[in-house]
Write a structure and sequence with these properties.
Actin-binding Protein, T-fimbrin, domain 1, extended, single chain, 8 helices, 189 residues, mainly alpha
């Protein structure tokens, strides 16, 4: 980690493509949501990818964010009184956030890995995870989401349909247009 030198060749190309996916406007929206959700006690980061990474790096802001999405008495993450200073404790705090976000409903493919945030390898992945978490919070509509609901897209929800037995029987008599028809057809064409 500390002895990482500059990247050359293909490694540099790959890293630059990853860095281009980072969205500064999305960062502003996510910061506004986190501050609205957790309160002003979390502070604000310096603008830019590095400031955003430093703000989230110890895992405390992320833990407060996911805890704020749960009702009082059922907080999934224990937040230490003093922010962790040791590297493995900070990474452990981030890992607890990831576990709690997965339990909240964020799918695995939307999750970043601890090293993506801790070493700023893929801050766009961190943004995607926070967007997925915000979208779930808006969709659940359980009163724990704070902020503008237009910041995130609602996830599609199931719309179950119920049919009576007579409706199901009537449907068996209808030939849909997708199935075609053989009226007037013969082997001759």
């Amino acid at each position: 980690m500390a002895n990482k030198g500059p990247a050359y060749g293909m490694s540099r190309d790959v890293q630059s493509k990853i860095e281009k996916k980072y969205d500064d406007e999305l960062e502003d929206r996510l910061v506004e949501w986190i501050v609205a959700q957790c309160g002003s006690t979390v502070g604000r980061p310096e603008r830019g990818r590095l400031g955003f990474q430093v703000w989230l790096k110890n895992g405390i802001v992320l833990s407060r964010l996911v805890n704020s999405l749960y009702p009082d008495g059922s907080k999934p993450i224990k937040i230490p009184d003093a922010p962790p200073t040791m590297v493995f404790k900070q990474m452990e705090q981030i890992a607890q956030f990831l576990k709690a976000a997965e339990d909240y409903g964020v799918i695995k493919t939307d999750m970043f890995q601890t090293v993506d945030l801790f070493e700023a390898k893929d801050m766009a992945a961190v943004q995607r995870t926070l967007m997925a978490l915000g979208s779930l919070a808006v969709t659940k509509n359980d009163g724990n989401y704070h902020g503008d609901p237009n910041w995130f897209m609602k996830k599609a929800q199931e719309h179950k349909r119920e049919f009576t037995e007579s409706q199901l029987k009537e449907g068996k008599n209808i030939i849909g247009l997708q199935m075609g028809t053989n009226k007037g057809a013969s082997q001759a064409g």
